[in-house]
Hints:
Blueprint: E1 2-4, E2 10-18, E3 27-37, E4 44-51, E5 54-60, E6 68-78, E7 86-91, E8 94-99, E9 103-105
Parallel strand pairs: 2-9, 5-7
Antiparallel strand pairs: 1-8, 2-3, 3-6, 4-5, 7-8
Amino acid sequence: MMNVIHQDLDLWEVWIEYDQFHPENFGTLYVHGEITTGQKTNSCLVKLHEEGRQLHLRLSGNFSGIGDSQEVVYSEPIKNLNQYSGVCIYAGEELVGFINDIEIMI
């Protein structure tokens, strides 16, 4: 479930893809979304920190809610299936979304 705090965040997904061939990691966590940027710019998601089992990411670039739509992606290898229970997304210092539904793809 995505709790949208900022109305211009749309189409967000979080999933874990199992990697049976990696000897140490369970798989890879992916965060994929679409944002509206104020200008044609390259925006991305940058890891801020982990707090408990919450992953905190920040949108880089100009996030104004007016202008072009752009896809953003974040990925990270994870050691175990329960490493994260949710993802918080920030624009600057403002929390703009929280996703607590992480799909598992095996």
